[in-house]
Each structure stands twice: as C-alpha cells, then as structure tokens.
Amino acid sequence: MYEGVVQDLIDELGRLPGVGPKGAQRIAFHLLTSDPADVTRLAEVLVQVKEKARFCERCFNVSQDALCRVCADPRRDRSMICVVEEPKDVAAVERTREFRGLYHVLGGAISPMDGVGPQDLRVAELMQRLSDGEVTEVIIATDPNIQGEATATYLSRFLKDLGLRITRPASGLPVGGDLEYADEVTLGRAFEGRRAVGA
Amino acid sequence: MYEGVVQDLIDELGRLPGVGPKGAQRIAFHLLTSDPADVTRLAEVLVQVKEKARFCERCFNVSQDALCRVCADPRRDRSMICVVEEPKDVAAVERTREFRGLYHVLGGAISPMDGVGPQDLRVAELMQRLSDGEVTEVIIATDPNIQGEATATYLSRFLKDLGLRITRPASGLPVGGDLEYADEVTLGRAFEGRRAVGA
Fold it and tell me: Where are the zinc fingers (C4-type) (chains A, B) (predicted)?
C-alpha cells in the first residue's frame, strides 16, 4: 500500500511479536517524522544486540560476557539456585530484591502439546551445577500454570535424591488484589498455605 | 534490569508508540533469539527509511521520489482532490479502490487544545494547487471527530468562493455493524442521510 522502503519498514515491524498491522503503521509514521538520530540509535542498538548479547555459560541468562552479571558478582549467595523458565523471569525476581542467590534458566517449560520435553530444557546443565556440592537449596520458580507446574513436579522428583532443600515460591492471593475476585484455585492455595499471625 | 545492550534495546523499543515496557521486553527477547539476518534487515530498513523516504512535493503523502506514486500516475483523475489529515489516511482511501483522483495531506487537523490552527496545516499549499483551474471537486475526508469536523468546516468555508464542488464522505452505520450498538450521533446521521431504495 505504501511506497518502497516505507512498506518494507511496516512489513518488518509487523513481524515483531505483539505488533499488528495498525501498530506497525503507527510506529513507521512515528519513525518517519522523528529525529534521524533516534532512528539511527535504534538501528545501531539492533545490530549491537546481535553482536554483543549472548547467554551466560553457567546460568543461561542473557549476558554481555561469558558470565552474566549475577554469576560474576562475588557477593551473590552461591548456596541457592533459583530455577526459572526464561531470562525475563530472572529480571522479574531481581526486581523484588528479595533473592541474593544464583539463577538457572531452563529455556522453557515441559509442554507435550508443543512437543517440549525435559530433554529440550537445560536440566543436564542444572545437574552439572549441583554436582559440586556448593548448592544447598533449589527454588523452582517456574510459572504457576500447567506447563510450569509440570516442570516443577518433574524437577522436584528428579532432584529429590540429591539431599538438597527443594522449594517453590508460595501460591496465594496477589498483594493489592480482592479476595472476592480471586479464582478458586488461587484462593484454595491461599487457604492451604495459611500462616499463623500475631501472638 | 538487563545488561548493557539488551537494556538499551528495551529502552529504545519502549520509546515507540504503542509499545509498553512488557511489549519492549517481549520484542527484545524475540530479536535476541531470532535469525541475525532478520534483525540486520530491520536495522537496514530503519536506516534506509530515513535516507530514502520523504514527502511528496505536491500532495505531502509519503514518497520515495519528488512526486508520490499517486501524483506521478498519469491515469489518475486530476479533477478531484481528496483532502486528508495524514498519509495513513491516503493508504486507507487507496485500499477502497473507489477513488481515482489525487490527494492532499494537511498534516493534521485543527485542534485549539493542542495549539494547532489552520496556519499549521498545509492549507496554503492546497489553495496553490486549486488555483490552476484543473480541479473541479474537493472531497474533505478529514476524520469524523471534533477536530476533523472543525477542519472540514473551516476548509469548506475557506474554499466556498472558488466555484468548486466541495463534498464530504457520508456519515452513517458501518457496514457489518449492529444498529443496536451504533452511537446516537452516528445513527442520527444515518437517518439524516437516508436514501431511497428499490423501485
């Protein structure tokens, strides 16, 4: 519908996840009228991300060096590993500032429907890391959905003979939410995991 | 939250219209794991669009040459000019394949709230184009909202002494819509503009 490069840009933008045809058009026109320096910077950072970004050799988080910032940080507690599905989950846990251990990114979750089995995840690499005896607790922080729960169940069985503490983050009511609007499963879990308060 | 270039990319993507922080992160991870050739192509097209794309000297549609594809096409009917707000409106009208005339892109609509007056739109350039006597009809296809209607009213008054036919696309019920769900103004316009049917 548009001429040459403008249509090319709309086509390329439309291939990005979460960007529909209207969104691609909107972004293209924004870029057309924006400062050339801004567009050049975006183009440069796209090239650089493919050149420089890679995955941490140890935990498979995104990284700019052989080891990611967390693995390379000597102040992190090396006795705990938090197992997550994707690098974005590392960022989510880091934002809480509650966890000072290390991570292990599985690269997905078990999902027979999508043809993803345990052999497609970085489970062997996790076992390798646990073999040095430094780790004492593994927190399985996969998503609280069917695939994530299946992955957590698989991992906890797989790891149970290693003599480690295996934990899973608590399920319950989201903070700031309404009890009335919680789904039955979440509310059920919240009751199951209730804690004594006060004195 | 992420390292170096990955965070840079998320920041840059997050500046695009309609892309929130979660969307920027999603796109960044998609690009991280996608074929380097695809990312290079996106980077190249971004650079090219700023180098090659410009605005048509006559109608101010986006173009790759001095004149856009529509203005340069000898088969277009030069007696009609369709006035629109933005280049994306040209694309929308072109998709209908109903209009074979030329366009004029105003570059916005009158909006006192945003400090946009008639002098900020390409009205003088439109007058210049109408002065050669070749044009006999001007279709004012600004958006059917407050700003677009104000612009249409302004233009129709401004042009009324030129002896041209001044028209506006019909307002009415969208095809495929439900009468029940039409807003009062649209339904009112649809009744006002009703047409005789059959014989």
Answer: 56-71
B7 touches chain A (CB under 8 A): no
Report pLDDT digits (tens) over B43-99: 999 999 999 999 999 999 999 999 999 999 999 999 999 999 999 899 999 988 889
The DSSP-derived string for chain B is ---HHHHHHHHHHHTSTT--HHHHHHHHHHHHHS-HHHHHHHHHHHHHHHHH-EE-TTT--EESSSS-HHHH-TTS-TTEEEEESSHHHHHHHHHHT---SEEEE-SS--BGGGTB-GGGSTHHHHHHHHTTS---EEEE---SSHHHHHHHHHHHHHHGGGT-EEE-PPP-PPTT--GGGS-HHHHHHHHHT------
Domains delineated in chain A: 4-52 (1.10.8.420), 75-196 (3.40.1360.10)
Q: Which residues of B touch A29 (CB under 8 A)?
A: 62, 86-88
Q: What pLDDT is stored for residue B199 in this prediction? A: 60
Q: Do A39 and B49 touch (CB under 8 A)?
A: yes
The answer to whether residue B31 neighbours chain A at the CB level (below 8 Å) is yes
B33, pLDDT greater than 90: no
Q: Which residues of B touch A47 (CB under 8 A)?
A: 39-40, 43
Q: Give pTM, 2 decimals.
A: 0.77
Residues from chain B contacting residue A35 (CB–CB below 8 Å): none
Percentage of the residues of chain A whose pLDDT score is greater than 70: 99
Across the interface, which of A6, A25, A91 has its CB nearest the CB of B49? A6
Q: With CA atoms as reference, report the closest residue to B40 among A47, A14, A30.
A: A47
